[in-house]
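Key result, reporting period 2: structure in, sequence out.
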């Protein structure tokens, strides 16, 4: 059985005091949560402070991005070793905002995935189609291309350790959530791709989160789908109550 995993992607929001307060609030509420993995991914400048606030709790720490080189003259970038040093367990890679606003390619993401795994981090690799791609009937083709490009050259063991987040771009920050059927179709297809490229055991091991306007009032329906193993939450992860309301959705 795959253990459900709910992660908050705080994106470029909050200041230090509010990030720490949110982390402390979540750490406290998480005491009552069992059988679910939880993580928060604050802006990199607050990783240290938030890491201290969640230390020893059921809330793990994740970063929103990293660079594929180990060290050196890469102004503004952050290495896997630095994330490990701060206590990160996860790193989001290939988020749609990095793909579409900051121009990251599948090849860039692929390099990062290899380095993150080699560094002992668990990548949360994001894939997702644009609205025009969905309307043109190209959703599954786009997801397959992103999967093959972003995850090229990995062994089955490595893929089994990944988290994949399906985030349809048109559902991110728009309030327009994918229906449970739309999301389940893509999650099931992702598992078919993994079974094709590797085997059924790997396909059944990988956790696949859904992301895109997940809120407490739509989470339960999404999370009850057989191939949806959790959520990557943006806006609703910025408040203790709404994040924990989503986690409560796992209870049915
Ligand atoms: P929202 O939940 O704000 O739509 O963002 C989703 C997301 O991009 C999480 O990574």
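The corresponding designed sequence is given below.
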């Amino acid at each position: 059985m795959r253990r459900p995993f709910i992660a908050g992607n705080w994106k470029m929001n909050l200041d230090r005091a509010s990030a720490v307060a949110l982390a402390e609030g979540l750490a406290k509420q998480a005491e009552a949560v069992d059988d679910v993995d939880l993580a928060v991914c604050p802006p990199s400048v607050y990783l240290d402070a938030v890491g201290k606030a969640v230390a020893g709790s059921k809330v793990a720490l994740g970063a929103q991005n990293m660079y594929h080189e180990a060290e050196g003259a890469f102004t503004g970038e952050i290495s896997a070793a630095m994330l490990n040093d701060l206590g990160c367990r996860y790193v989001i890679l290939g988020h749609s905002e990095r793909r579409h606003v900051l121009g990251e390619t599948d090849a860039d993401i692929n390099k990062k995935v290899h380095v993150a795994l080699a560094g002992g981090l668990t990548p949360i690799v994001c894939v997702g189609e644009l609205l025009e791609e969905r309307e043109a009937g190209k959703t599954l083709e786009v997801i397959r291309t992103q999967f093959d490009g972003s995850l090229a050259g990995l062994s089955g063991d490595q893929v089994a350790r990944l988290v994949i987040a399906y985030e349809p771009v048109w559902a991110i920050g728009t309030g327009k959530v994918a229906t449970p059927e739309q999301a389940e179709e893509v999650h099931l297809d992702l598992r078919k791709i993994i079974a094709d490229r590797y085997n059924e055991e790997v396909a059944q091991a990988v956790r696949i989160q859904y992301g895109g306007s997940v809120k407490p009032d739509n989470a339960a329906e999404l999370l009850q789908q057989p191939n949806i193993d959790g959520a990557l939450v943006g806006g609703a992860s910025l408040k203790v109550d709404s994040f924990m309301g989503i986690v409560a959705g796992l209870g049915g």
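The first strand starts at residue 5 and ends at 9. The CA atoms of residues 10 and 42 lie 5 Å apart. This case is discussed further under Risks and Mitigation.
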